[in-house]
Amino acid sequence: MFIYVGIFSSNIYYDTSSVAIILFIVFVVTSLMLTLVYLYTFCILHKYGYCFMSSLRQDVEVVAGTLERVLRDRAERNP
């Protein structure tokens, strides 16, 4: 049923130091990505007791409100 191909029977020797370096890089990148996901998902408690992501969201809302006011004022001055 299966066809045996001679190319698969050849012994392939990998340079273990290269494989170890590649695995280490994959491990570090994965760890960094999971750390960012953890920080985003589980909110860092700040010293004042509120959620880090909540404070970021509030800061973005303040900036958006300020920008909206500035644009509205410019539109009123220049009809």
List keywords for this structure.
79 residues, mainly alpha, transmembrane helix, transmembrane, membrane
Helix and strand layout, with pairings?
Blueprint: H1 16-41, H2 52-77
Would you give an account of this structure?
Helices cover 66% and strands 0% of the residues. It is mainly α and 79 residues long. It has one domain (6-77). The model has no long low-confidence stretch (mean pLDDT 71).
Helicity range: 55-70%
Overall domain count: 1
Structural class: mainly alpha
Mean pLDDT: 71
Rg calc? 27 Å
**Which parts are unreliable, with pLDDT below 50 for 5 consecutive residues or more?**
none
Order of helices and strands: HH
Shape: elongated
Number of strands: 0
How widely separated are the two ends? 80 Å
Percent in strands: under 5%
Q: How many DSSP helices?
A: 2
The major pleated sheet works out as: none
Keywords: Membrane, Transmembrane, Transmembrane helix
Transmembrane segments: 20-45
What's this model, at a glance?
The protein is built from 2 helices and no strands. The chain has helices at 16-41, 52-77. The mean pLDDT is 71.
